[in-house]
Amino acid sequence: MYVILVYDVNQKRVGKMLKLCRKYLHWIQNSTFEGAISEVKLKELCNKASEFMDNDTDSLIIFKSRSERWLEKEIVGCEKNKLDNFL
Predict the structure, then answer these.
(1) All domains of the chain, ordered by start, with CATH?
(2) What is the Cα Rg of the chain in Å?
């Protein structure tokens, strides 16, 4: 599946969340990631995030799609992190 993940966590936990998400997905903009991921890996990411998140103040939002081709993406302005697919 293809996901877009957005997080909003307390400043004390931003570094941990950033590091965790970079292990699974591609960083595209502040607190925003995207990429192909299996259901098992996504569940693993969410479980690890919930270990340090404060459920009263922090949030993790995940948008799911069958694949990237079913997702139309338009960027207006500066693209923070271009995804290069090269071998």
Answers:
(1) 2-68 (3.30.70.240)
(2) 13
